[in-house]
Amino acid sequence: MTIFAVADGIGLVSFAVSGYLMGVRKGLDLLGILIAAFMTALGGGIVRDAIVGRTPLAFTDGSVLVFVTLGIAGAMLFKLHKKERLERYSIFIFADSLGLVAFALTGALVAVQFDYNIFGVMLLAFITAVGGGMLRDMMVNEVPMVLKSDFYGTIALLVAAVVYLCDGAGVLNSFTLTLIALSGLTLRLVAYKRKWQLPKLGGEKR
User: Fold this and answer.
1) Closest of 78, 68, 67 to residue 36, by C-alpha
2) SS3 sequence, the chain?
3) CA angle (205 as vertex; 203, 206 as ends), nearest 5
4) Which CA distances in Å does 53 have to 63, 164, 166?
5) Model pTM score
6) Which CA distances in Å does 72 have to 1, 85, 86, 134?
7) What is the pLDDT along the chain (206 residues), one digit of tens a residue?
């Protein structure tokens, strides 16, 4: 549970910053920015907990709101909204990638705790990792990143698959989870930098 708490805290802070920056980029007012931040950070986790049949942690654990608030406050304190567009976009990508990997881990760990099979582990990790971001992007009228970046949702699935295999092999511990997290984050950033994509079917978009 310690590594779960760490990963969940990192995901909440990172996705809160991600949602905050998206709200700023889209020209939302203060309330809109706060809604985008909270939706990004909490949306996937709420859906995850609903699937496993438990009350969402966001409704019972006060630390969840503390982490989200810290993410927003940190973004405001460092005045990320005043950075140049290119720099701000880089910060957004890193925060979003960090949140993606952290929430993929928490989703996979919850599924393992409930003895889900590999399909359940991968699906729950995917929903936890991308659910909030999808809701955020749809709210600001933008195509969700998971639908246009092949190596976005794929990272969550790969992380979940490795967690499931490690659990089956009896080697799921803090060290392996940290290694999985660092590998997933590195792969996501390298894939974004080099514009890696999965094969596409059909002709070119016109």
Assistant:
1) 68
2) CHHHHHHHHHHHHHHHHHHHHHHHHCCCCHHHHHHHHHHHHHHHHHHHHHHHCCCCHHHHCHHHHHHHHHHHHHHHHCCHHHCCHHHHHHHHHHHHHHHHHHHHHHHHHHHHHCCCCHHHHHHHHHHHHHHHHHHHHHHCCCCCHHHHCHHHHHHHHHHHHHHHHHHHCCCCCHHHHHHHHHHHHHHHHHHHHHCCCCCCCCCCCC
3) 115
4) 21, 21, 25
5) 0.89
6) 25, 18, 20, 19
7) 588 889 999 999 999 998 999 999 899 999 999 999 999 999 999 999 999 999 999 999 999 999 999 999 999 998 888 876 645 578 888 888 999 999 999 999 999 999 999 999 999 999 999 999 999 999 999 888 788 766 889 999 999 999 999 999 999 999 999 999 999 999 999 998 898 887 777 655 55
Q: Which pair of tokens denotes residue 76?
A: 């405001």
- Please report, as a single letter, which amino acid is at residue 85: R
